[in-house]
Amino acid sequence: MKIKICIPTERIHNPIISDSIIETGILLNIMVANIDSTYGELIADVMDSRFDRIKNALESRGAIVAILDRPIHRDEEECVECGACISVCPMNVYSFDENWSLCVDEKKCIQCGMCIKMCPHGALKLGE
Amino acid sequence: MVKKSIHEINKKIEDGSVNVVTAEEMVGIVENLGVEGAAKEVDVVTTGTFGAMCSSGLMLNLGHSEPPIKIQRVWFNNVEAYSGLAAVDAYLGAAQISNTRGIQYGGAHVIEDLLRGKEINVHATSYGTDCYPRKVLDTTITLDDLNEAVLLNPRNAYQKYNAATNSSKRILNTYMGELLPNFGNVTYSGAGVLSPLSNDPSYETIGTGTRIFLGGAQGYVIGNGTQHSPSSGFGTLMVKGNLKEMSPDYLRAASFTGYGTTLYMGIGIPIPILNEKLAAATAVRDEDITTSVLDYAVGSRDKPVIRKVNYAELKSGSVQIEGKDVPTSSLSSFKNARKIANELKDWVKHGKFFVSMPVEKLCSEGSAKPMKQTQAVPLVKDVMSDFIVTIKKNQTVQDAAKKIWENSFNHLAVVSDTGELVGILTAWDISKAVAQSNFDSVESVMTKKVLTCAPNEPVDLAARRLDRYGVSAMPVIDSQRRVLGIITSDNISKLLARRY
User: A74: which chain B residues are within 8 Å (Cβ-Cβ)?
Assistant: First the structure.
């Protein structure tokens, strides 16, 4: 499953991610990481069965963990299947099939919202 | 030599014996039968395109009110239309944006809402005359209430269009969509193999008077579009059709983030195969239609060409730029273009649509001119200070402080041993270093991410960048990153002071 880990300002100098991985031995596949001296936000993939343990480890160190379970939703009436969304998605959620129909693989979505801004027809929304 | 007349083809449409194929199917037919065989076999080739066509709008007539009004200004759902036409005629442009909702809603949305049967608020004002005494009018209308609702689009169906990319370090929001930094993506528009004008590039059969599929109804080409540039393969069409007969399947409002509203139009044009030349032209493939990928990071009219590309490459999903595979996005819908070409094929096959010859040919040479500007645009090099103090990156903070003090200059350009710009140092940076008792090399206290500009950039672009990033000065550098001068907010205010 995809999870979002937020590291608040007061904990930004602690090696929260490394500590949690070493303690639990659970691997996190980090897909997006925006960290600076004031705030950190990461998106990572973790096996469903191990989520509770890594969540506890991270949260005991001050991080905030949320499951990304509101993937992108496409309004098929509004969508004209132009494919504008394809090139801005960092996770390759969108693709064309051989008939130029738009395919959406919601499972890959990390809810970054890039495609929402790109869509000229306002056909994309998060979580519905 | 194959020679058919429009009359013969229309006879075949009438008796149901016409052979009509889409421009996509024609590629294979010409490959198999050759040009002559295909010209004998095929009577009509249908094309289609479905994409953003900003230069579109609705000419409408409201009917007269009681007491009558000579409308001076008019708004439909708070989107202003042009009404300097008699009393109750107005022209609503697709790209006009709402006074209240901004670029979320525009003329294009009003047109789509009308087409979907929705009620539209109308507010109109006037100065009042003896014959038109009324000064203010408020009402609601639907499409049925209008006497005429004619879609009248000055520039549609570009033969092909330039693709877009972005070399800069920030996201650009353009009419070509979101362009990601560092050549992060390429966007393009146009139907390639199905593009109407690309299938008749010498405009033999597409011209003034040609009957076409427009928004799901029968419409007409009424001439070349504005900015028609046939010499470079960028022909355009001016078209008209009755909105009341159209379908929202083929007409959609859209809004590009940070840019504005536009209308997605579905257009299909049948090409009668009168001779071998037309059979050969309609066999055009995606790989035969080339265009340029332009760098939208350059905010000028003439954007640098990053590379040439054909529609097969664009449609493959990625193109190479600087050795990297860059993902592409289409802004027009190829699926809908195909749907239109097939729908038009059905109409012709079932005797519902007859082909026509233009009453006047489009001009097949020439190019759109740039705007005549009577005031010279000041360039960065015209206003920049060509005196700039530089410092080597390995000198000390104390050296820097001394230079600033001696030259009474607020910004030092930090350069490498070979003279390339590597950073900038301000009096503020030095104060900070002193406050923190940091007396290391200039390199450790300077700002490394420097905004720069080029000497030939218009000052307006430099000013926009200073404003966007909240800085007061930018070094001016050449292509080798050598420092030529500096442009400051002072330089720009002096320019304005001289102007007024």
Answer: none
Contact yes or no for B329 and A86 at CB 8 A: yes
- Taking only the tens of pLDDT, chain B with its 500 residues reads 899 999 999 999 999 999 999 999 999 999 999 999 999 999 999 999 999 999 999 999 999 999 999 999 999 999 999 999 999 999 999 999 999 999 999 999 999 999 999 999 999 999 999 999 999 999 999 999 999 999 999 999 999 999 999 999 899 999 999 999 999 999 999 999 999 999 999 999 999 999 999 999 999 999 999 999 999 999 999 999 999 999 999 999 999 999 999 999 999 999 999 999 999 999 999 999 999 999 999 888 899 999 999 999 999 999 999 999 999 999 999 999 999 999 999 999 999 999 999 999 999 999 999 998 888 788 999 889 888 888 998 898 888 888 888 887 788 899 998 889 999 988 888 888 888 887 788 888 898 888 999 998 888 888 888 888 888 889 999 989 999 999 988 888 888 877 65
Beta B389-392 vs B411-415: how paired, if at all? parallel
Whether chain A has a CB inside 8 Å of the CB on B102: the answer is: no
Contact assignment for B330 to A114 by CB distance below 8 Å = no
Tokens 């449609």, located at residue: B315
Q: Are strands B389-392 and B211-214 parallel, antiparallel or unpaired?
A: unpaired
Q: Output the six-digit token pair for B134.
A: 């009324």
Calculate the CA dihedral of residues B285, B349, B209, B250 and round it to 10 degrees: -70
Residues of A in contact with B176 (CB under 8 A): none
Residue B374 DSSP SS3:
coil
Q: Catalytic: B131?
A: yes
Q: What is the DSSP secondary-structure string of B218-253?
A: EEEEEEEPTT-BGGGTB--EEEEEEGGG--TTSEEE
ipTM of this predicted complex?
0.82
CB B262 within 8 A of CB B254: yes
Give one DSSP letter per residue of A19-56, joined into a string.
Answer: HHHHHH----EEEEEEE-SS-EEEEEE--GGGHHHHHH
Q: How many beta carbons lie within 10 A of that of residue B456, not counting itself?
A: 11
Q: For chain B, what's the residue count?
A: 500
As a whole number of Å, the end-to-end CA separation of chain A is 18
Q: Taking the domains of chain B in order of start, what are their residue ranges? A: 6-53+152-361, 63-146, 380-499
What is the helix (H) or strand (E) element at residue B466, kind and residue range? helix B459-469
- The continuous run of DSSP H or E covering A123 comes out as none
Cβ-Cβ pairs closer than 8 A, A with B, add up to 72
Instruction: Tell me the β-bridge partners of A40.
Output: A7, A35
Domains with residue ranges and CATH for chain A:
2-67 (3.30.70.260), 72-126 (3.30.70.20)
CA B301 to chain centre: 12
Judge whether B332 is closer than 8 Å to chain A, CB to CB: yes
| Tokens, residue B168 | 């800069």
Provide Rg for chain B, Cα atoms: 29
Q: Cα dihedral angle (B120, B76, B148, B214), rounded to 10 degrees?
A: -90
CA distance B369 to B228: 10
pLDDT value, residue B500: 53
Q: How far apart are CA B74 and CA B86, in angstroms?
A: 13
Rounded Cα distance between B135 and B68, Å, is: 9
CATH 3.40.50.920 fits B380-499, yes or no: no
Local structure of residue B49 (DSSP, 8 states)? E
Q: Tell me how close the Cα of A96 comes to any Cα of chain B, in angstroms.
A: 9
